């Protein structure tokens, strides 16, 4: 991994419980709800599928690609998305760079605010993860031409990098870790039919507008590296959490709620230095 970033040394205090609760609702196929904000300030919520945590690719029977070395962990939930969908535009338009629709379709970037909600009935716990979302495209995230290396790529690597904890053989295998490889592996972790949806006609557009070349429902796709159209549309979305709320309703007479907040020194609460690692979390127990 080429980008330099500050080093996070410990896991967020909520991560282990969150991860183990997610295992009870499907682990890397758990359903959750994602809220974004439109450029006009209206809320939009939709169902998505959790695909693990960034840099910790889940095992998957569909995936035969070479993997990145396991030298990073993070507290960042990941899902996949089509760049042509509205949430992509919301995430670009409400980020610091205020990206327009064309930019949102063109590659890596984003940074708009999101909230993801996960309800785990087995543990009677609701988790709400608030932070920023970043979209990563295989074609411009590393290497390639100078034009392809846009400022979105640099920002995403820096911002997500703050959350990437070196582990294991990091010192010797650092140069082998590739953002592009991680994106290609997330694509490969989907079923061939699900991969094919990235060649669908444009989501949300009227049927009367027709479809582009090669676009069709019900296609099956192999590797991302071999499919230009799917590559144009496929994004891995990484949520960089800043506030996590946990509500435990397992005892109706003694419900509990905790709010974990990334400390100001760690770039949280809007006031801190975003060049710092996402290290320190404050926790407050509140009335439920
Ligand atoms: C069970 C289920 C899982 C879904 N998973 C995802 C997902 O992981 N990513 C995604 O972008 N859309 C997913 N969708 C589709 C979204 O709910 C939504 O319809 C689509 O993303 C378009 O929304 P948007 O235009 O607001 O972006 C899923 C829908 C369902 C019902």
Automatic annotation (TrEMBL):
It comes from the Eukaryota. This is Pyridoxamine 5'-phosphate oxidase Alr4036 family FMN-binding domain-containing protein. Residues 246-256 have a biased composition (Basic and acidic residues). One of its GO terms (molecular function) is FMN binding. SUPFAM superfamilies: FMN-binding split barrel. Residues 12-136 form the Pyridoxamine 5'-phosphate oxidase Alr4036 family FMN-binding domain. Residues 192-215, 246-288 are annotated as: Disordered. Pfam families: Pyridox_oxase_2.
